[in-house]
Design goal:
By secondary structure, the protein is α+β, with helices and mostly antiparallel strands. It contains three helices and three strands, in the order αααβββ. Strands 1-2-3 form a three-stranded antiparallel β-sheet, covered by helices on one side. A hairpin with a 2-residue loop joins strand 1 and strand 2.
Amino acid sequence: MKQADLLAVMIVKSDEFAIGLMEACQHSDAVKVQKMVLSTGITSKVETKFTPSGIRITLENSEEDHGDCCKLIMLLHW
């Protein structure tokens, strides 16, 4: 949850970041989307899938001591 919070806080507090992420998705710029998501400080395994109308971000705890047991999926639509 802390990892997801890093991204959520950035989106809420920075209109520039939120608009940049949306525009990168709308232009199918996978490299920029990944860089922006990771720039928030997320260290968990992250997978992004997006369309011009939204993004799906999956965070996994595979780096935790207890193995690959949990995933958190964020869906954002604009």
